[in-house]
Amino acid sequence: MARNRRNNHTEEHENHERWLVSYADFITLLFAFFVVMYAISQVNEGKYRVLSDALLQAFKPEGQEPRVMQPPPLKQPQGPHSGVPSGVIPSLPIKRGEDPQKRAREERMRNLAQEVLKAMQPLVRSGEVRVSESARGIAVEINASVLFEIAQATLDPESARVLTAVAAVLANADNAIEVEGHTDDAPIHTPQFPSNWELSGARASSVVRLFIDSGVAPNRLVAVGVSDTRPLDSNETPDGRARNRRVTVLIRPDPPESGAEPNS
Fold first, then answer.
1. What is the pLDDT of residue 119?
2. DSSP string of the chain, one letter each residue
3. At residue 138, does pLDDT exceed 90?
4. Is residue 230 part of a domain?
5. Are 230 and 165 members of one domain?
6. Confidence class of residue 26 from pLDDT cuts 50, 70 and 90?
7. Among 183, 168, 167, which Cα is nearest to 240's?
8. What range defines the domain where residue 36 resides?
9. pLDDT band at residue 226, thresholds of 50, 70 and 90?
10. Is residue 157 located within the same domain as residue 215?
11. What CATH number is attached to the domain comprising 247?
Protein backbone atom coordinates (compact mmCIF):
# COMPACT_ATOMS: atom_id res chain seq x y z
CA MET A 1 0.00 0.00 0.00
CA ALA A 2 2.86 2.41 0.85
CA ARG A 3 4.44 1.61 -2.53
CA ASN A 4 1.22 2.54 -4.31
CA ARG A 5 1.03 5.82 -2.43
CA ARG A 6 4.55 6.64 -3.53
CA ASN A 7 3.76 5.80 -7.15
CA ASN A 8 0.61 7.85 -7.09
CA HIS A 9 2.43 10.91 -5.64
CA THR A 10 2.23 13.81 -8.04
CA GLU A 11 5.68 15.31 -8.77
CA GLU A 12 6.12 19.06 -8.35
CA HIS A 13 6.27 21.14 -11.52
CA GLU A 14 9.59 22.79 -12.38
CA ASN A 15 9.51 26.56 -11.82
CA HIS A 16 10.27 28.18 -15.21
CA GLU A 17 10.29 31.73 -13.80
CA ARG A 18 13.33 31.42 -11.54
CA TRP A 19 15.27 33.60 -14.00
CA LEU A 20 13.26 36.58 -12.75
CA VAL A 21 15.14 36.43 -9.45
CA SER A 22 18.52 36.69 -11.17
CA TYR A 23 17.21 39.37 -13.51
CA ALA A 24 15.91 41.43 -10.58
CA ASP A 25 19.28 41.11 -8.83
CA PHE A 26 21.05 42.23 -12.00
CA ILE A 27 18.81 45.29 -12.42
CA THR A 28 19.33 46.22 -8.76
CA LEU A 29 23.13 46.02 -9.11
CA LEU A 30 23.01 48.00 -12.36
CA PHE A 31 20.94 50.71 -10.69
CA ALA A 32 23.37 50.87 -7.77
CA PHE A 33 26.28 51.10 -10.21
CA PHE A 34 24.82 54.11 -12.03
CA VAL A 35 23.96 55.80 -8.73
CA VAL A 36 27.59 55.45 -7.66
CA MET A 37 28.83 56.73 -11.04
CA TYR A 38 26.52 59.75 -10.80
CA ALA A 39 27.68 60.48 -7.28
CA ILE A 40 31.33 60.32 -8.34
CA SER A 41 30.70 62.64 -11.30
CA GLN A 42 29.57 65.33 -8.85
CA VAL A 43 32.96 65.57 -7.19
CA ASN A 44 32.79 66.52 -3.55
CA GLU A 45 35.92 65.64 -1.65
CA GLY A 46 34.20 64.93 1.66
CA LYS A 47 31.48 62.73 0.14
CA TYR A 48 34.06 61.01 -2.08
CA ARG A 49 36.14 60.03 0.92
CA VAL A 50 33.09 58.68 2.77
CA LEU A 51 32.05 56.64 -0.27
CA SER A 52 35.55 55.29 -0.95
CA ASP A 53 36.07 54.35 2.69
CA ALA A 54 32.72 52.55 2.78
CA LEU A 55 33.49 50.60 -0.39
CA LEU A 56 36.96 49.65 0.77
CA GLN A 57 35.63 48.57 4.16
CA ALA A 58 33.01 46.38 2.48
CA PHE A 59 35.33 44.67 -0.01
CA LYS A 60 38.67 44.55 1.82
CA PRO A 61 40.11 41.09 2.62
CA GLU A 62 40.06 40.00 6.23
CA GLY A 63 42.84 41.50 8.34
CA GLN A 64 43.90 44.04 5.67
CA GLU A 65 43.86 47.74 6.38
CA PRO A 66 41.88 49.82 3.87
CA ARG A 67 43.85 52.02 1.46
CA VAL A 68 42.92 55.69 1.35
CA MET A 69 41.71 56.83 -2.06
CA GLN A 70 42.18 60.39 -3.30
CA PRO A 71 39.49 62.10 -5.39
CA PRO A 72 40.49 62.82 -8.99
CA PRO A 73 41.63 66.41 -9.72
CA LEU A 74 39.02 68.72 -11.15
CA LYS A 75 39.66 69.83 -14.72
CA GLN A 76 40.01 73.56 -15.04
CA PRO A 77 37.96 75.29 -17.74
CA GLN A 78 40.08 76.41 -20.65
CA GLY A 79 39.51 79.04 -23.26
CA PRO A 80 41.09 82.01 -24.94
CA HIS A 81 40.11 84.26 -22.03
CA SER A 82 40.20 83.46 -18.38
CA GLY A 83 37.49 84.64 -15.99
CA VAL A 84 38.48 88.28 -15.79
CA PRO A 85 35.61 89.57 -13.59
CA SER A 86 36.53 87.22 -10.78
CA GLY A 87 40.27 87.66 -11.31
CA VAL A 88 40.89 84.00 -10.59
CA ILE A 89 43.67 82.25 -12.48
CA PRO A 90 43.69 78.61 -11.31
CA SER A 91 46.87 76.79 -10.42
CA LEU A 92 47.56 73.67 -12.41
CA PRO A 93 48.26 70.36 -10.64
CA ILE A 94 51.86 69.22 -10.57
CA LYS A 95 52.45 66.46 -13.09
CA ARG A 96 54.79 63.58 -12.45
CA GLY A 97 58.18 64.26 -14.02
CA GLU A 98 57.41 67.93 -14.60
CA ASP A 99 60.38 70.30 -14.59
CA PRO A 100 60.38 72.04 -11.16
CA GLN A 101 61.82 75.22 -12.67
CA LYS A 102 59.05 75.33 -15.28
CA ARG A 103 56.47 74.75 -12.59
CA ALA A 104 57.92 77.54 -10.43
CA ARG A 105 57.94 79.91 -13.44
CA GLU A 106 54.29 79.17 -14.20
CA GLU A 107 53.37 79.75 -10.57
CA ARG A 108 55.19 83.11 -10.56
CA MET A 109 53.36 84.12 -13.73
CA ARG A 110 49.97 83.33 -12.22
CA ASN A 111 50.79 85.22 -9.04
CA LEU A 112 51.93 88.19 -11.11
CA ALA A 113 48.74 88.08 -13.18
CA GLN A 114 46.64 88.03 -10.01
CA GLU A 115 48.40 91.12 -8.70
CA VAL A 116 47.97 92.92 -12.03
CA LEU A 117 44.26 92.11 -12.10
CA LYS A 118 43.90 93.38 -8.53
CA ALA A 119 45.58 96.64 -9.49
CA MET A 120 43.24 97.01 -12.50
CA GLN A 121 39.98 96.32 -10.65
CA PRO A 122 38.35 99.62 -11.77
CA LEU A 123 38.80 98.63 -15.43
CA VAL A 124 38.06 94.96 -14.78
CA ARG A 125 34.70 95.79 -13.23
CA SER A 126 33.72 97.90 -16.24
CA GLY A 127 34.58 95.05 -18.63
CA GLU A 128 37.28 97.05 -20.40
CA VAL A 129 40.05 94.56 -19.65
CA ARG A 130 40.56 91.04 -21.02
CA VAL A 131 43.21 88.56 -20.00
CA SER A 132 44.48 85.69 -22.13
CA GLU A 133 47.25 83.17 -21.56
CA SER A 134 49.39 81.49 -24.20
CA ALA A 135 52.91 80.22 -24.77
CA ARG A 136 53.97 83.84 -25.33
CA GLY A 137 52.93 84.85 -21.84
CA ILE A 138 50.01 86.63 -20.19
CA ALA A 139 48.36 89.32 -22.30
CA VAL A 140 46.36 92.11 -20.65
CA GLU A 141 44.17 93.75 -23.30
CA ILE A 142 42.91 97.23 -22.40
CA ASN A 143 40.26 98.99 -24.44
CA ALA A 144 41.81 102.12 -25.90
CA SER A 145 38.67 104.15 -25.21
CA VAL A 146 39.43 104.16 -21.48
CA LEU A 147 43.05 105.16 -22.04
CA PHE A 148 42.95 107.80 -24.79
CA GLU A 149 40.70 110.34 -26.44
CA ILE A 150 39.81 109.68 -30.08
CA ALA A 151 42.86 110.11 -32.37
CA GLN A 152 45.05 111.02 -29.37
CA ALA A 153 47.98 109.29 -27.62
CA THR A 154 47.92 111.12 -24.28
CA LEU A 155 46.82 108.92 -21.40
CA ASP A 156 43.62 109.79 -19.55
CA PRO A 157 44.51 110.87 -15.96
CA GLU A 158 42.22 108.30 -14.31
CA SER A 159 43.57 105.44 -16.46
CA ALA A 160 47.10 106.68 -15.85
CA ARG A 161 46.57 106.17 -12.12
CA VAL A 162 45.45 102.58 -12.74
CA LEU A 163 48.44 101.89 -14.98
CA THR A 164 50.74 103.39 -12.35
CA ALA A 165 49.46 100.79 -9.89
CA VAL A 166 50.11 98.08 -12.52
CA ALA A 167 53.63 99.45 -13.02
CA ALA A 168 54.28 99.19 -9.26
CA VAL A 169 53.51 95.46 -9.51
CA LEU A 170 55.63 94.92 -12.61
CA ALA A 171 58.56 96.87 -11.17
CA ASN A 172 59.11 94.12 -8.59
CA ALA A 173 59.35 91.38 -11.25
CA ASP A 174 61.98 90.69 -13.90
CA ASN A 175 59.78 89.59 -16.83
CA ALA A 176 60.20 91.12 -20.26
CA ILE A 177 57.20 93.28 -21.19
CA GLU A 178 55.90 94.15 -24.65
CA VAL A 179 53.34 96.94 -25.04
CA GLU A 180 51.40 96.78 -28.31
CA GLY A 181 49.25 99.56 -29.71
CA HIS A 182 46.33 98.54 -31.96
CA THR A 183 43.81 100.58 -33.98
CA ASP A 184 40.79 99.88 -36.17
CA ASP A 185 40.94 100.33 -39.94
CA ALA A 186 39.49 103.86 -39.99
CA PRO A 187 42.18 106.03 -41.67
CA ILE A 188 43.71 108.98 -39.85
CA HIS A 189 45.49 111.93 -41.48
CA THR A 190 46.68 114.56 -39.01
CA PRO A 191 49.96 116.49 -38.76
CA GLN A 192 50.83 114.49 -35.62
CA PHE A 193 49.66 111.09 -36.89
CA PRO A 194 49.78 110.70 -40.67
CA SER A 195 48.50 107.11 -40.37
CA ASN A 196 47.40 104.49 -37.87
CA TRP A 197 50.99 103.25 -37.65
CA GLU A 198 52.12 106.45 -35.97
CA LEU A 199 49.04 106.54 -33.72
CA SER A 200 49.41 102.93 -32.54
CA GLY A 201 53.14 103.37 -31.94
CA ALA A 202 52.62 106.59 -29.99
CA ARG A 203 49.98 104.99 -27.77
CA ALA A 204 52.26 102.06 -26.97
CA SER A 205 55.09 104.49 -26.23
CA SER A 206 52.88 106.49 -23.84
CA VAL A 207 52.26 103.39 -21.75
CA VAL A 208 55.95 102.46 -21.84
CA ARG A 209 56.97 105.94 -20.68
CA LEU A 210 54.52 105.75 -17.77
CA PHE A 211 55.92 102.34 -16.77
CA ILE A 212 59.49 103.69 -16.86
CA ASP A 213 58.52 106.73 -14.81
CA SER A 214 56.90 104.35 -12.29
CA GLY A 215 60.05 102.29 -11.75
CA VAL A 216 59.99 99.54 -14.41
CA ALA A 217 63.50 98.97 -15.80
CA PRO A 218 63.68 100.35 -19.37
CA ASN A 219 65.57 97.31 -20.69
CA ARG A 220 62.56 95.12 -19.86
CA LEU A 221 60.19 97.14 -22.06
CA VAL A 222 59.39 97.18 -25.77
CA ALA A 223 56.84 99.46 -27.46
CA VAL A 224 55.27 98.11 -30.66
CA GLY A 225 52.75 99.78 -32.98
CA VAL A 226 50.90 97.35 -35.25
CA SER A 227 48.18 99.66 -36.64
CA ASP A 228 45.11 97.66 -37.75
CA THR A 229 46.99 94.52 -38.83
CA ARG A 230 45.89 92.28 -35.91
CA PRO A 231 42.15 92.80 -35.42
CA LEU A 232 40.31 90.77 -32.80
CA ASP A 233 36.89 91.44 -34.30
CA SER A 234 35.27 92.66 -37.48
CA ASN A 235 35.77 96.30 -38.40
CA GLU A 236 32.30 96.28 -40.02
CA THR A 237 30.51 97.03 -36.72
CA PRO A 238 30.99 99.75 -34.09
CA ASP A 239 31.46 97.16 -31.35
CA GLY A 240 34.06 95.31 -33.42
CA ARG A 241 36.01 98.49 -34.14
CA ALA A 242 35.87 99.44 -30.44
CA ARG A 243 37.38 96.10 -29.47
CA ASN A 244 40.12 96.38 -32.09
CA ARG A 245 41.20 99.73 -30.65
CA ARG A 246 43.25 98.49 -27.72
CA VAL A 247 46.59 98.40 -25.94
CA THR A 248 47.98 94.98 -25.06
CA VAL A 249 50.50 94.58 -22.23
CA LEU A 250 52.20 91.24 -22.85
CA ILE A 251 54.06 89.88 -19.82
CA ARG A 252 56.60 87.37 -21.11
CA PRO A 253 57.50 84.33 -18.98
CA ASP A 254 61.25 85.07 -19.06
CA PRO A 255 63.49 88.07 -18.38
CA PRO A 256 64.71 90.11 -21.36
CA GLU A 257 67.77 88.87 -23.21
CA SER A 258 70.98 89.92 -21.53
CA GLY A 259 72.15 91.69 -24.67
CA ALA A 260 69.01 93.76 -25.04
CA GLU A 261 69.61 97.49 -25.10
CA PRO A 262 67.52 99.75 -22.85
CA ASN A 263 64.72 101.63 -24.59
CA SER A 264 65.15 105.34 -24.81
1. 84
2. -HHHHHHHPPPPPP-TTTHHHHHHHHHHHHHHHHHHHHHHHS--HHHHHHHHHHHHHHHPPTT-PPPPPPPPPPPPP--SS--TTTT--PPPPPPTT--HHHHHHHHHHHHHHHHHHHHTHHHHHTT-EEEEEETTEEEEEEEGGGTS-TT--SPPHHHHHHHHHHHHHHHTS---EEEEEE--S-----SS-SSHHHHHHHHHHHHHHHHHHTT--GGGEEEEE-TTSS-SS-TTSHHHHHHHSEEEEEE-SSPPPTTPPPP-
3. no
4. yes
5. yes
6. confident
7. 183
8. 17-72
9. very high
10. yes
11. 3.30.1330.60
Side-chain half-sphere CA neighbours of 6 within 13 A: 3
Kindly state whether residues 21 and 149 are assigned to the same domain: no
How many domains does one find in the chain?
A: 2
Query: Rounded to 10 degrees, what is the CA torsion of 242, 84, 158, 141?
Result: -50
User: Is residue 232 located within the same domain as residue 118?
Assistant: yes
